[in-house]
Amino acid sequence: MFKDIMDAKVNVKITARERGKRVPQLCREGHNIWVNQGRQYLAEVISPSDGTFAAHFNDSTVRVVRYMGFGIGGDAQGIDIAGTYATLDTHYPGQNIFDDDTVTVPYLERPVKVSGAAGVGASAGVWMNSVTAPPTFSGSPITKVEFDTLFDSNALHLSGAYPSVPISEIGLFLSSEQASRTSEEVYDYITGPAYINTSTRPKLIAYNTFDTITKTVSVALEVHWEVQF
Fold first, then answer.
1. pLDDT digits over 48-76, tens only?
2. Lowest CB count within 10 Å: 83, 108, 109, 116, which one?
């Protein structure tokens, strides 16, 4: 007897460009984990939501992959954030212990805003960018879907508040995280050492931590994320 085990294979590729020119030392490729929340999502998305198939197919709230976001957490972070980037350490506090071998990772460990105001208690900003729609499907039969998004040269720097940002983790998020995408309360600044506000922090379905990319205001990042079954 043969046992068929289907597992989602996920690959992420980050291409850094400075004034349009590729910067090889800032580019990254990796294989990341499809976390438990992502596995649950796959089980639910192929199932009727209330016992009737028609209702499931016509449900406007059906969740799809929609966002990507960066953070400065993860165990691949190679920079002493507290010693080198005191402001970032204050505004985006936390640890660097998450890895991309553990399926229970629920969020980015230390997410950073794509745009908005800087600082503790600042008004809501944007924590993730939308992927390009529609995505690319490939294979015969189709077994792969590819998602792309761009973090332009202004992204993450919040109007110059952070001249450089040492990113080291990335997450893939569902459309159901639309509200948390602009939450003001992603961090719980009182409760350390994790400082995670579990009620409002965006929940991811796939996670990758990578060698630090120190993004400056002259660098744009193109992310290509593949999910293959």
1. 666 665 555 555 567 889 999 999 999 99
2. 83
Contact 97, 71 (CB under 8 A): no
Q: How far is CA 82 from the centre of its chain?
A: 22
CA–CA distances in Å: residue 123 to residues 39, 158, 182:
33, 12, 9
Tell me how many degrees the CA angle 34-145-54 measures, rounded to the nearest 5: 90
Band (46; pLDDT cuts 50, 70, 90) = low
**Residue positions counted in the chain:** 229
Strand pairing class (129-130; 136-138):
unpaired
Neighbour count for residue 207 (Cβ, 10 Å): 30
Which token pair is 227? Answer: 């999910």
